[in-house]
Specification:
InterPro entries: Nucleotide-bd_a/b_plait_sf, RRM_PARP14_2. The structure is a single chain. The protein has 136 residues and is of the alpha+beta class. The protein folds into two domains: 2-78, RRM (RNA recognition motif) domain (Alpha-Beta Plaits, 2-Layer Sandwich); 84-129. It has four helices and seven strands, in the order βαββααββαββ. It has helices at residues 15-26, 56-65, 67-71, 96-104, and strands at 3-7, 35-40, 45-50, 75-78, 84-88, 113-119, 124-129. The strands form two sheets. Strands 2-3-1-4 form a four-stranded antiparallel sheet. It has a three-stranded antiparallel sheet with strand order 5-7-6, covered by helices on one side. It is elongated. It starts with a strand and ends in a 7-residue tail after the last strand.
């Protein structure tokens, strides 16, 4: 996977600081489109997407050994490939068939859905695809 999750990212850590930290550790440049950073403040995390053939395992190892990352208590791990996604804001009483057809529509991914597990108390559903590429 070309994706790395940075965890324990406090609200006080800005995206620019993370970008510089990733640049310092990887030797790559965000402005050269070598990678991008997406902040996920709801779970105190960020996702780094490398665009080239970066050895993410090696980056994770270097990141977790870096004194600045340790100082900030930020840890890195490779993002595992999954066949499932969580969809939110699903109206109550939405039929499973509707959700299946929605995600199988080419405009919405076009991947074969093998399972829909609704979480009505949360207004959400877990959708599982036959192939991990369907939930990109």
């Amino acid at each position: 996977s070309a994706l790395v999750v940075l965890e324990n990212v406090r609200e006080t850590v800005g995206d620019y600081m993370l970008i510089m930290l990733v640049e310092n550790i990887s030797g790559l440049a965000e402005e050269d489109d070598d990678f991008s950073v997406e902040m996920i403040p709801e779970i105190n995390a960020a996702v780094v997407t490398f665009t080239g053939s970066t050895a993410t395992g090696e980056f994770v190892k270097k990141f977790n050994q870096n004194h600045r990352a340790k100082q900030q208590s930020i840890t890195a791990r490779c993002l595992e490939v999954t066949k499932s996604i969580r969809a939110e804001n699903i109206p109550p009483n939405t039929p499973d068939d509707y959700i299946t057809i929605y995600f199988e529509n080419k405009k919405n991914g076009g991947a074969q859905v093998v399972d829909v597990q609704q979480l009505p108390d949360e207004g959400a559903a877990i959708i599982t695809f036959s192939d991990h590429k369907g939930n990109a």
